[in-house]
Amino acid sequence: MSSNFKITYSALNADMSAVHAEFDKTMAALRFEFVAPGGKEVPSVIAGKEIKTGKFNVKKNPANLSETVGKYHTVGEVELNTAFETARRAQVAWGATSWEERIRITRKAADIMRDRKFRNAVLMTLEVGKNRMESLGDAEEAADLLSYYAQQLEDHKGFSQPLAKLSPNEDTRDVLRPYGVFAVIAPFNFPMALGAGMASAALLGGNSVILKPSDDAPATAYEIYRAYKDAGLPEGVLQVVFGQGPPLGEAMVKHPMCDGAAFTGSKTVGMSILRNYASGPFMKPALMELGGKNPTFVTQSADLDKAAQGCVRSAFGLTGQKCSALSRLYVHEAVYEAFMKKLIAKASETVKIGDPARQEIYMGPIINEKAVIRHLGAIDEAVKNGKIVFGGTDLRKKAEFAQGHFVDPTIAELPATARHFKDEFFSPFLAVTKFKDLKEAITLANNVEYGLTAGIFTEDKNEIQYFMDHIEAGVLYANRATGATTGAWPGVQSFCGWKGSGSTGKGGCGPYYVSQFMREQSRTIMG
What we know:
With about 525 residues, the protein is an alpha/beta fold.
């Protein structure tokens, strides 16, 4: 299968027969490698050496809990100290490496990721439960992020530029320099793209990186390491450590040799990093994307078919476990009944639930039991406060879903004051309400802690402009049938969280990301 064939989250109608054949072939091979017999042992990597502690994170397939998808050696305090000491030493030479060489290695790593995209995608399907199109999109995005960020460094010539002079005998220059050692903590939902994206930006900036994946998605972090190793990255510049989320993540960002942190995950954990762990004798950069509670508006003039498709894809893709997922929907009262019929019909037609390894499946399992309970709790509250119009059952009671963490995608009509319009559930739950006036609806929608993505469906250009100018979110879409609030791609849509959805005001996939992993230095030399 050609590595030049690209699948994005917006792909809809291309002939995928060759893709499916290659995916099935790779799935069979990796089931043998990682699942049978009893799960492959995967080491942490410190100082270029495989660390086998004998203490494991045993990863289960969320679609089939009888399958072990690898056993990952977890590190303790001694190993973590070694990792930071190694990273500190390795960073000195890496930071002095020319920006051209850092670009060369990164681009080679991107090419390797493209060559291995089916392997990486299958691993994500097995350990996270993403369907094959979502997994392939993740693998493709990871490689594109490396290429895009490398281009940023090249376009800015290593982030070094001359400044003005106050006298003819002075030479002045502004340069961006690395911070040192970055702790990169990746999430489960986009483990390859976000793990590789954060790590590559830090590496291109001349930093060394200690990468910790989510407990629920360790395999792809090891594949990120392998790609960079095979691209020629010096030992110790990128290391991978496995371990339980909060204890290990906290130890990393609190470590005295940690010079900065990059994190994608919940707002609760992100705020904890800012308040407690990134502090010390001086400020440390904490670059974070922290989830969302994303709205879409369907107005009187909207193309209702386009809107229904975009809303279903955005709300239920990846089992609703996207920080950009549509979770609250505001529909004009004049088109409400007609639109809801189309929305429910489209959901019924599109959302086939089951083992995501199968070609026909759109929605696989949710990530773990805790997420199942949270989703069922949201359903129970909706029954009391509104009306379930699609889904809303407990799939655990059905034999075909009993072996995995499956949940029922749910659409509920609720008052706009319900908690479902405020809190992030990170599951396939869509809350819907009516509105009379778009300006009032946007004001209401802005009254949340989050500000990541937002969408609108309307044929009125004035409504689009008002939405763009007044919604409080960093990623905006109008009339996007492939995903009302989802589907950002490197260099195409910058992915930046406002308010409680981000920490810096500049996000991944955008032109200002890499520079955040570096600090500014002004240099004046008198002649």
